[in-house]
Amino acid sequence: MNEGARAPVSRLESLRLRARLYAGIRAFFAGRGVLEVETPVLSAAGNTEPNIESFSTPFSGHVDAGSRERWLRTSPEYPLKRLLADGIGDCYELGRVFRNGEAGRRHNPEFTMLEWYRVGWDHLRLIDETVELVQDALALQGRHAEVVVRSYREWFVAELGLDPFTASVDELRAPLADVRIDEAGLVRDDWLDLLVTHRLQPSFPRDRISVMHDFPATQCALAKVRAGEPPLAERFELYLGSYELANGYHELNDAAEQRARFERDNARRRGRGQRELPLDERLLAVLDAMPACAGVALGIERLLMCLAATDDIRDVLAFAFAEA
Predict the structure, then answer these.
(1) Which helix (H) or strand (E) holds 210?
(2) b vs e for 27-43, b when ≥16 Cβ sit within 10 Å of the residue's Cβ?
(3) How many CB atoms lie within 10 A of CB 58?
(4) Which whole number is the average pLDDT over 305-321?
(5) Taking the domains of the chain in order of start, what are their residue ranges?
(6) How far apart are CA 281 and CA 67, in angstroms?
(7) In angstroms, rounded to a whole number, what is the distance separating the alpha carbons of residues 150 and 153?
(8) Which of 11, 64, 80, 200 has the greatest number of beta carbons closer than 10 A?
(9) Cβ neighbours around 146 below 10 Å, total
(10) Which of 80, 172, 131 is nearest to 298 (CA)?
């Protein structure tokens, strides 16, 4: 794919490709005994992650139905975890999610996410299955990708000559000296993220699946943290070419720790002048009962963009946000 170029893919071709991909995904999971489920799109709880903004909408019905303000989901993660706590076992959902903010060549506020969970697995085992699913998708277009799997530390050392766990902030800033960056308020993790997005990610070859795993504990999100020196967040990111497709975790099932993380998120939101969001109390009430498992979310439009060889998300949508 050439940056800025739009592939000559028609709307009909795009819709047919999406339909083939959906059929392939459903066949993939049916063959593995993973149950397809559907969960609510509207919730009384919001996503506290400071870098994600949610849409909200008022409910005008009877107050017995609960909170009047409802949030459009940014992923199906929380209700899927409630189902896991109920004992549903391996499951997945393929559905629409919503994130407020940027719309254009790379982002659409409404998009499709595939999310699935495997009981008794860790994040390393789930990497293999995620790679298999992406290879199956590539096969729809007669393609196959080489696979490179490295730890987060191995990527940084091999490509940048930096140890992300011990390098100083000044050492992390140095490779970004030619990038215009507003440094106000940036912390260590922000510099690490900028190195990924500006130095590692753009250099990934088009026909390669690149996976990095075992992140700094400060980037744990909803993943377990493995004790050690340094402690590591048991999560992975999968890229096809330069596109981040999937983010997976060895899932945290400690309600007290998860509540603390949600509260830290809201504290960060407050510090940024963002609105604090209501916690998912229904999730927290059952999280301790959720079995040990690994889960991953994959962006369907990103995958379709790779399959259609386009750098513009509008090429793989029936109607983009501006046309909806």
Answers:
(1) strand 208-216
(2) ebbeeeebeebebeeeb
(3) 8
(4) 95
(5) 11-39+76-253+290-323
(6) 13
(7) 8
(8) 80
(9) 9
(10) 131
Query: β-strand 208-216 against 146-151: which pairing, if any?
Result: parallel
Can you tell me the distance from the alpha carbon of 100 to that of 103, in angstroms, rounded to the nearest whole number? 9
Residues in the chain: 324
Cα–Cα distance list, 324 to 13, 38, 147, 314, 317 (Å): 19, 24, 37, 12, 10
Q: Check whether 4 has a pLDDT greater than 80.
A: no
Q: What is the arithmetic mean of pLDDT over 165-174?
A: 96
Chain centroid offset of residue 217 CA: 17
Residues facing residue 59 across a β-bridge: none
261/253 Cα distance (integer angstroms): 12
- Which one of 3.40.50.2000, 3.90.800.10, 3.40.50.300, 3.30.930.10 gives the CATH number of domain 11-39+76-253+290-323? 3.30.930.10
Tokens of 268: 């960060």
Assign 7 a pLDDT band (cuts: 50, 70, 90): very low
For tokens 């009047």, the residue is 68
Compute the distance between CA of residue 169 and CA of residue 179 in angstroms, rounded to an integer. Answer: 16
* Torsion sign, CA atoms 189, 190, 192, 196: positive
- The answer, yes or no, to whether residue 5 has pLDDT greater than 70, is no
